[in-house]
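Forwarding the complex inputs:
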Amino acid sequence: MTDQKTLAEPETSGPYRRMMRPMEGRLVGGVAQGLAAQLKLDPVVIRLVFVLLSVVGGVGGVAYAVLWMITPREPYRGEPPARDWSQLAAFTAIGVALLAFGFLTGASRGGIGMLPFAVGGIGGLILWQQADPDRRKNWVSGATKSIRKNRVRTLLGVMLVVAGGIGFLVVEGQLQEAGQGLLFTAVVVGGLAVIAAPWLAGLWKELQLERRERIRQEERAEVAAMVHDSVLHTLTLIQRVAHDSREVTRLARSQERELRNWLYQPAQDADATLAAAVRRIAAEEEDAHGVPIEVVCVGDIDLDSGGRLGAMLKAARQSMVNAAKYSESPSISVYAEVEGEEVTIFVKDRGKGFDLDAVPVDRMGIRESIIGRMERHGGAARVRTEPGEGTEVMLTMKVEKQ
Amino acid sequence: MTRVLIVDDHRLFRSGVRAELGDSIEVVGEAEDVDSAVKAIAELQPDVVLLDVHMPGGGGQEVLRRVLGAGSQVRFLALSVSDAAEDVIGVIRGGARGYVTKNISGKELTDAISRVADGDAVFSPRLAGFVLDAFASSEAPPIDPELDSLTQREREVLRLIARGYAYKEIAKELFISVKTVETHVSSVLRKLQLSNRHELSRWATARRLV
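Prediction (whole assembly, two chains):
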C-alpha cells in the first residue's frame, strides 16, 4: 500500500484513501470494484481472483464477505443502478467451470492440490494486467461488450455449463469412467468458447463497420449521380439559353422542384392521393408553359375509383393551362382543400382577366372542359373574373368519406 | 426608415437582398452565422432581422432562442429556401413574426419587412396552408379552447391567404378593413406560438413535405 500514493490520481488528496464500495457498475456488492480502484487494477482481474479463490475451498467467498462488511458504501444519489446480470452470469459460469475442473482432477478434494493452480492463476492475471495496456483494454472491452451485447450467447454458455454440471452428477452415479472424457471435452469446448467470444465479437463489429461504410459510399454515389445527371445538366442548359429569361426561369424552377422532391418528398405513388396528383399536374403545366405555379394543399384524400376526383383534376389542369396561356400573370396560385366530404380546388392568377359573358359559345376551354365537366360528375365550377382583376376558378366536388 | 439586419450564411444572397430592398429600408448590417448574428443584434438594435433558417451553429432557431431568451424585443422575419413544415413551424414557434421563402420578389419582401416592423405577422400561402392543416388535423379535444383552435373568421382569412390573396384583396372579399385582416393574422400567429398542443410539432415532423 506504500506505493499507493504515487499511483493515486492527482485529485485524490491525502496519503491514504479509504476503500469504498461504489454503487455504479457493481456486480454483487461492489467489493471487487472498490478493491480494484484501491489497487489500481482492472475490476475484471479482481473479480477473476475472487472466483479463483472461491473455487479453492471457498476462501474467496469468505474474503469477499469480510471485505463487504468492513468497507463502507460509497454515497450514491438516486435509485441504485441495475446490476449487469449478464456479466455476473459470465463470472459465475467461469467459477462453475473451474469447480467442475477441480472435481474432475480431484484437486479440490485434497484441498492443497488446487492451490498451485490458484496461485498460478492469480500470478498470471497480475502479469496480464501489466501487459500492454492498450491491447489489454481492447481485450477486456471487447469481452465485456460482447457479453453485454450478446445476452443470448451468454445465456447459451450458462446453460451449457449447467447441463454439463447435471451431466457430471449423473456420470458420477453411473458412467463414471466413460463419461469423464466426454465431460472434459465439454468443459474445454466451453472454455474455448469463452476465450473466442471477444475475438468473434470483434470480427462481427468489423463486419458491421464495413457494411455501414459501404452504405455510406452508396449514398454518396447516389447524391453525386443526382447532382451530375440533373443539376449540372440544368446549369449547362441555363448558360446556353441565358438570353431567354423565361426559359431560364422555367429550367431553374423545374430543377428546383426535382431537387426538392428528391430531398424531402417521401417516395410515393404520384397518383394515389389528391394532393400528390395536384402537385404533379401543377409541375407538368409549369414545365410546359414556364409560369411558376404555387401549390398549397390542406388535407388529403385517396383518389376515388368512380373518377369524380379524376374529372375534377382534369378541370383543374385546364384552369391552370388557361391561366398560364392567356392571363399573362407572372405566377399562378393553386389551393386544394379536403374538408370532411367536400373537396375544393382554387386556381387563381393575377393576370388581365376577361369578360365571361363575352367568351364565344364555341370556345370549349371554360364552358366544356371546366364547368361542363364538373357538372357532369356532380360537382360545380365557378369562375370569377373581371378585366384587369385576374381570374379565379373554384371547383367543388362532394365525395364519400372513406 | 426601417432598420434591417440581414442574417444569412450565403454572401451572394445577402448582397442580392440588399440590392433588391426598396428605399424605405435601411440595411444596417449583415451577419453570417449564429454568433455574429447575436452580437450584431445586440450592437445595432435593428427594427427587423431577416433571418435565414439553415445556418452553421444551430440555425435561425438558435438565434431566436438566444436573442428572445435574453428579453430582446427585436422582430424577426424568417427567410428560407426550405418549405418544409418542420422548419416553418419551428421558427414561427421559436418567435419569428413571419415566414417567407427566398423566391419572394423584392417588392413583396419590402412589404413584408414593413409589416413585421409594425408588429404585424406575415404569412406566406404555404404557411397559411400548414396552419390550417395543423389545426384541422386534430381529433383530440383542445386543451385550451382559446389557444388551441381557430375562429371561423381566422380560418377564412387563412384560407384566402393560402389561395394567393393579398391582405388588401382579403379585406375587400370579407368586407373588413386591412387592419382587421392584420389583427386576425397576428392572432393566429399568437396561437401558433403559444398553443402547447404537442400535435403542432408532431404534425410538422410527420409531414416532411415541401
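Residues 176-240 of chain A form the longest helix (65 residues).
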